[in-house]
Amino acid sequence: MEGNVTCLLIDDDTDDQELFQYALKQVFPDVNCTFASSGPEAVSILKDDHFTVPDYIFMDWHMPYMDANECIPLLRNAAELEETSIFILSGIEPLITQETISNLGIKRILRKQASVESLSDELFKAIKEAG
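Above: the chain's sequence. Below: its structure in token form.
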């Protein structure tokens, strides 16, 4: 990855946020990651004029207040996200149709991994695949 790469993780579990950041930094040490604990918080972050639109967004599918299905269209309306790859990061495989994945512009669904090494591998593959 060239230059400063940025990502936004939307996950209500702070332990998962810490694990994600640690795993991501194992494969991309210079990544700059911002965290939101809910969909509404993520929308607010993206509406901030001082916030740089992230290169990648990772989000948990199941969250309180607003799940990813509701959140993604709001994120896309809040910021210029045409170039931003959105990934779902979930502990269980979400019940989601291929049509919904396509309509929401989700690049890939990733399973949360039990080990840092496995999560690092998944994140590396996903980001490299997205380009």
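The CA atoms of residues 24 and 78 lie 25 Å apart.
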